[in-house]
Write a structure and sequence with these properties.
The protein has 321 residues and is α+β, with helices and mostly antiparallel strands. The protein has helices spanning 3-11, 58-76, 94-110, 160-168, 176-187, 193-199, 213-224, 239-244, 247-256, 272-280; strands at 20-22, 30-31, 37-47, 79-89, 114-122, 126-136, 151-155, 205-208, 227-231, 263-267, 286-293, 298-303, 306-307. The radius of gyration is 20 Å and the shape is globular. It binds adenosine-5'-diphosphate and magnesium ion. Adenosine-5'-diphosphate (ADP) binds next to α1, β4 and β5.
Amino acid sequence: MNEFDIIKHYFTKASHRKDVLMGPGDDCAILQVPANTLLAVSTDTLVSGVHFFADMDPAALGHKALAVNLSDLAAMGADPCWVSLALTLPEVDQAWIKQFCAGFFELAEYYNVALIGGDMTKGPLSITVTVQGTLPEGKGLMRSGAGVGDGIYVTGTLGDAALGLQQVLGNIAVSAEHQEFVRNKFEHPHPRILVGQALRDMATSALDLSDGLAGDLAHICRASNLRAQIEVKQLPLSEAMQASVSQERAWELALTGGDDYELCFTVPELYRGQLETALAHCGVKFSRVGRMLSGEPSVDLVHDGQPYQIVSQSWDHFRKA
Ligand code: ADP
Ligand code: MG
């Protein structure tokens, strides 16, 4: 199969979306954007050996490559619509491509996202996905809108993906009953699309957690020019986490572990009740972990109100060892 046969056979799928006037196969995709609509656009690259192990299950990789991008749309409160896919492959392994597509398209179909085009090149395995979504005019969950006194919330439980990674690396032993759960959190993140949409009229700021709460929340602090106070006892920990590591290590993983793809957002106290109702409809657990305070941008940890310290920091690709 040559490049064009592969694109035609594996990456050209009829979509139900009427707004795709031209999908894969021509020089550009052409999309019909509704009037009074904003476009939200985001790109993420996954590189073999950096973001995933070279032998990762291709179906999980296809899922994850799209999921981490949809997570960015969720964090903006956008409705996902279209995706493009640039694949760099060391060789044409049709069984691998088939599995990759199975994982990718299963998630794409779930959210009614159409693959509208992409690129294929030969080289070390790397996947770049660009997603586009829509927002009603005047909406969008920026990092810069948090206010003094707002509650800080997160969805799901934190640190499980990092726990999964440490398990795979053989650094932490997870008991048999919890192994599938942590592996799933690590390989199959679920973008919190419905939560993002529900927050559009309530949250003052939001982002998705890719590098750990402590580091990611610092972005909201800087953008909003406020201080965040996190009570570590309120960090949501899974049963698997509590059964596998000490309390201190669990808090550290929850605060610094990457790849959770949960949402972190701030909501004024006034909307607390409304938030409960809105998120109950999404079926996603969420927790209040702290509040925004005035002061120099920083993320301050407290334990029963007393200052608390963790050892490591969040992941930074360019940090010197
Ligand atoms: P060009 O030479 O104009 O860049 P390409 O040969 O890269 O075109 O791609 C031909 C067509 O196939 C384009 O419409 C492109 O969007 C589509 N395409 C290429 N790779 C992929 C992919 N991995 N998934 C979906 N569509 C793809
Ligand atoms: Mg091209």
